[in-house]
Specification:
By secondary structure, the protein is of the alpha/beta class. Helix content is 53%, strand content 12%. The chain is built from eight helices and five strands. The model has no long low-confidence stretch (mean pLDDT 92). It binds shikimate-3-phosphate. Shikimate-3-phosphate binds next to loops.
Length: 192
């Protein structure tokens, strides 16, 4: 398997898409792109402001336009927002020339990692846990369906997740072959 032109990270809020994406890009020698951050830069406003003024639908329009643009960038690792998979028109953009990686995290981990967050409008309410549960039920099957690789992130450091991902993406080099033998795992589509 040779390296894919693009690696696209999907998954829920708090899965570590940005942290892992940045580290993975460095490891692969790819450019790191963060869809939400680029939307904010272009708009000159943060995501809560966009949700406030334009509503979630306004944000989703911007997100689709951004994915369209970024789907044409080879040699990149793209971190997407958790809801990017909710529009079917985005699916072809996410999959285009890309290896899609689902960074899966349990609800408990999502809660833990988003506890103090003030930048995610969908969680600024009395019961963010219920929201995370509802979104997970809705989105987990879609992430899974879209993904070429499902990578579990619970109780793993970002560094470990990146190492496992690199092994999956480029298993031909001698170091990775050794690692592969050591782990005794299949590198075909599956889970880690
Ligand atoms: C959202 C996730 C956020 C951001 C927006 C909506 C979602 O991105 O795009 O707040 O619908 O799950 P992260 O997954 O990076 O937090």
């Amino acid at each position: 398997m040779s390296l894919p032109k693009r690696v696209v990270l999907v998954g829920p809020m708090g899965a570590g898409k940005s942290t892992i994406g940045r580290m993975l890009a460095k490891e692969l020698g790819y450019r790191f792109l963060d869809s939400d951050r680029i939307i904010e830069e272009r708009c000159g406003a943060n995501i809560p402001w966009i949700f406030d003024v334009e509503g979630e639908s306004g944000f989703r329009e911007r997100e689709t336009a951004m994915l369209k643009e970024l789907s044409e960038e080879p040699g990149t690792v793209l971190a997407t927002g958790g809801g990017a998979v909710m529009r079917s028109e985005n699916h072809v953009l996410l999959k285009s020339d890309a290896m899609v990686v689902y960074l899966r995290a349990s609800i408990d981990q999502q809660i833990e990692r988003t506890r103090k967050d003030r930048n995610r409008p969908l969680l600024q309410n009395d019961n963010p846990e219920a929201v995370l549960r509802k979104l997970f039920a809705l989105r987990d099957p879609i992430y899974t369906e879209l993904a070429d690789i499902v990578m579990h992130t619970d109780r793993k450091s970002p560094r470990l997740v990146v190492r496992q991902l690199v092994n999956r993406l480029n298993p031909k080099t001698p170091r990775h072959k050794r690692q592969r033998r050591k782990e005794g795992r299949s590198y075909a589509k599956g889970t880690s």
